[in-house]
Specification:
Number of helices: 15
Largest sheet: 4 strands, parallel
Strand content: under 5%
Length: 382
Amino acid sequence: MGFFSKVKKLWGFDAATTTPAEAQTQAEQAVEAQDSAQAEAAVQPKPEPLPEPVVKPVVEPGAVTKAEPKSEPAELSQAWRDALAASLTSGRAKISEWLGILLTDSNSAGPELWARLRFLFATLGAPEAEAEAFITEFEAWARAMNLQRPEDIRSELRYRLILALDLEQEQEERTSIFQKFTQGLAKTKARFATGLGALFGRSGGLDDAFWEELEEIFIMADMGSEATQKLLGNLKARARSMGVTEAARFREVLGRELEDIFPLPKKPKVASAPEVVMMVGVNGVGKTTTIAKLAYRARLQGRKVLIAAGDTFRAAAIGQLEIWADRVGAGIFSKAEGSDPAAVAFEAVDKAQREGFDLVLLDTAGRLHTQVNLMEELRKIK
């Protein structure tokens, strides 16, 4: 569940109970309610402020005085509000479109952006406390990281909104992820696609020449010899089971095989909190740093994270995790160096259950699979 627990109802409707028209109606009602609340607030009489005493600063002779800058609240134009409302009532989450509207004529992480984010969250019906927490954390991060370039602000805001609103499985975001892979593999893709296109367009059946040409295409695409031979064997078996004997229909066979190889991942379901993730691997592969990244990601999703320092062997491992936990806003559990890692894991989970943590990330010391005693230690921890 995302950071804003009540928001996805506007576009992530259940097909069994809600139609797209109903989802759009819900979004329109949310926008109308927001506009109505703002209109009522605008017509409420404001009490006359009491005059404040005027205190004149003492100015030294010869000193040059500078005018204090005025800090005025950012005002959102009606045209901007209408543009965002129109995007929100489409019934689908469009993160790129929202970002374009949020950052229109705004090149800095300042009061205007915070005001726009508040309007977005209020219109979506997000709990006010969660919305303010999102803005406060983003403002603190932007200040700490000195985010000034518009592209950096956009990238960080996009990442946070996707995780907070649980939009990772939306069609637009999945397309964006695959576009990044496509750009990195442009040359290989072009050669691979050209070869497959010519192969699919040929006449004749699935003879030895066809399979030899397909093998060459896979090898030239850096697929590797072992993977190529295994894939060819699977494709031959699938073609026989589907009754495909012509090259023109081989595209169907390849498509079915790829669907089985790359199914959509399913989110793990935990019977009872907390979810526990144990990081294992050889020395120096980045387990501790990855824990920090996962903790940061989970925090942006609104989860309460506890990091357990199970690597009691490596010098400074505990101190490193303590620094990362402080930076990403996660909890930390540790014992003295040389302690039993299994005891650390047990007590960390016990602490997580008592204090309501959603996720425990357990660090472990690096080890090789040939080190029998250390592998037995992992079994004990598990």
